[in-house]
Design a protein that fits this description.
Blueprint lengths: L25 E2 L10 H11 L6 E2 H4 L10 H6 L21 E3 L2 E5 L2 E5 L14 H5 L10 H8 L6 E5 L8 H12 L6 E6 L1 H4 L2 H4 L2 H10 L6 E5 L9 H12 L3 E8 L7 H13 L3 E7 L13 H13 L9 E6 L2 E8 L3 E9 L8 E5 L13 E5 L2 E2 L2 E2 L1
Parallel strand pairs: 5-6, 6-7, 7-8, 8-9, 9-10, 10-11
Antiparallel strand pairs: 1-2, 3-4, 4-5, 11-12, 12-13, 13-14, 14-15, 16-17
Helix pairs in contact: 6-9, 11-12
The structure holds iron/sulfur cluster.
Iron/sulfur cluster binds next to loops.
């Protein structure tokens, strides 16, 4: 088996100016970014020593450098606020569900294969920063153990390739992984979790072999899903829309999931603009995530009930097709959807759960406007279940 780690876009730190080219140049050092002064670089070195910086000239060209609060800048350029003590390295306890090197199995039908420890850019709010801080021991270049686990578990019908970003891998490597997954009969859906359509749409536009791979392996009855991460409508450039169109034309189904992040998309107008534009180009808004309590993320977090209000206000501005997203907390125990709130209560439901008995469980908690995470809700008022140990109740 090919276990080489073929990276599509190696870093080139020799660049000293930003070009508007169709072959983005990758940067891992702030002092190569013309929009950032030498003084600011020096100040931010304290941050980048802990939380690395990575971007490319295409994505940086989306920034309005005259606006210190520019949302794209906030997404990709470090700030000193990231040093505020808060959160955990593994906020959703992903370690708990690691069954083989690089393989997580939390929900019955779905397994995650962590195939890459690199992304097109490093989102400042990333919830998997541990991959970029530690030695990325969770990402296994040899996925044979993960594949064997999937083969032995016929209940796994969905496999999510994630990391890091799978599309940062060379197409040969990706093809090798997808071919092996397609050889497993019970794997119906292959999902690719990626922010490359936002960070580097040219990775898709300029690689016919990648599109051929989608065409060959996204079958009529066994689709490949691209789980894109557009976070702000300004990421939906002409090039990004072109990349999405090519992926769709090759037979992929495209969904979008994004966290709700302070200073980036915590505005109903902005979020509605994102939902609408996604629906115009045929991308289904799937999940909006509460910002996880990850180390370094205090500055990006919005309290749960404020996030929910923003989310609903955004949806209220949209057509039916644009308002399909669900607002969820990706908690250690499952995907917990926020269904609604009154003055006194907040309503939750397990959309997915590690414990099958929790799937569909409905919970009413006393409202807590200070809550940033599900664990901050301590006053359970009422609950109802649709499943028990022996099935439906
Ligand atoms: S693309 Fe995903 S894994 Fe990569 S830095 Fe952003 S949030 Fe983290």
């Amino acid at each position: 088996m090919n276990t080489t780690y073929d990276i599509q876009n190696p870093i080139d730190d020799t660049v000293s100016s930003i070009n508007d080219t169709a072959n983005p140049i990758y940067l891992s050092s702030l002092d190569t970014v013309p929009g950032i002064s030498a003084e600011e670089c020096a100040r931010l070195s304290e941050v980048t020593e802990i939380f690395a910086f990575r971007a490319n000239d295409y994505y940086l060209s989306l920034i309005d450098w005259n606006d210190p609060a520019d949302p794209i800048r906030r997404l990709i350029v470090p700030t000193l606020e990231e040093l505020t003590p808060w959160g955990h390295l593994d906020p959703s306890s992903e370690h708990r569900y690691t069954r083989a090197p690089g393989l997580q199995h939390k929900y019955r039908e779905t397994a995650l294969l962590l195939v890459s420890d690199l992304c097109g850019g490093l989102c400042r709010y990333c919830f998997r920063k541990r991959l970029f801080i530690e030695d990325a021991r969770e990402v296994n270049k040899d996925i044979s153990g993960g594949l064997a686990y999937i083969r032995d578990h016929p209940e796994i019908s969905n496999v999510l390739l994630t990391g890091g970003d799978p599309l940062i891998l060379g197409t040969d490597r990706l093809l090798d992984i997808i071919r092996q997954l397609r050889d497993i009969d019970h794997v119906e859906i292959i999902r690719i979790g990626t922010k490359m359509p936002a960070y580097d749409p040219f990775r898709i536009i300029n690689d016919p072999a990648l599109l051929d791979m989608i065409r060959d392996y996204s079958l009529d009855e066994k689709r490949i899903y691209i789980m894109a991460q557009f976070t702000h409508p300004r990421e939906l450039t002409d090039a990004a829309c072109r990349a999405v169109a090519l992926l769709k034309d090759a037979g992929a189904v495209i969904m979008n999931q994004t966290p709700l992040i302070r200073g980036i998309n915590d505005d109903p107008e902005v979020l509605a603009g994102l939902f609408e534009k996604l629906s115009f180009i045929g991308v289904n808004p799937y999940y909006v995530f509460q910002c996880r309590p990850t180390i370094g993320n205090r500055t990006f977090a919005v309290p749960v009930e404020e996030s929910y209000r923003i989310f609903e206000q955004a949806r209220s501005r949209c057509s039916g097709l644009a308002k399909q997203a669900r607002f969820v907390l990706s908690h250690a125990t499952g995907k917990i959807e926020v269904l609604g709130k009154t003055d006194n209560h907040t309503y939750f439901k397990y959309n997915q759960a590690a414990n099958p008995e929790d799937i569909g469980r409905f919970m009413v908690y006393k409202s807590n406007p200070e809550a940033y995470w599900f664990d901050d809700y301590t006053d359970l008022v009422d609950e109802g279940r649709v499943r028990g140990p022996d099935g439906l109740v």
